[in-house]
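Structure catalogue
Derive tokens from sequence
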Amino acid sequence: MEQEESRMNLMAALEAMIFSVGDAVEEDELIRALDPERAEDKEYQKEVREAVNALIASYEDENRGIRLIRLDSRLQLCTKNEYYDPLIRLVNMPKKHSLTDVVLETLSIIAYKQPVTRAEIEKIRGVSSDHAVNKLLEYNLIREVGRLDAPGHPILFGTTDEFLRSFGISSMDELPDISPDQLADFQKQAEEEAGIEVPV
């Protein structure tokens, strides 16, 4: 009876920590947080891992809207896939961001020329790209990947994992190739629109 109560308390503590963190958390971090003094004790580690397995099973066995999943050595609480649509309606969020032509054009430049600075994007587009870049950062489709070793150390931008997910590709290698003819057309169009020469 005492052992069962100890396991239930352990499961409740694990659930509280995983829920509070929100993101995936390492199982070893949970063990250290539960009892730093016993964290290296193999028997205690086994006890905690058994409680984790019991917690995972309890979510699967019961008719609940959330589940506890393993991501390699990490654990995360997440909603069950079948409740995704009503959740989206509840929070009134679109499933995908609406990308205007300007934002999509800016994203294309970043995807194909990354890492790239804002000035390089604007040179290709011929107009200010502040709004488009800010939108892409807000949508988590691009991120800062470093700084250029040049005067002012301008920020370099690149695409994110969210970009890959949104466009249904697993790596940048899957982006379609741009033929030299298409590249020449894009350059000519940019030059005509902006009245500048764009180096390829």
Summary: The longest helix spans residues 2-21. Residues 2 and 8 are 10 Å apart (CA to CA). The longest strand covers residues 66-71.
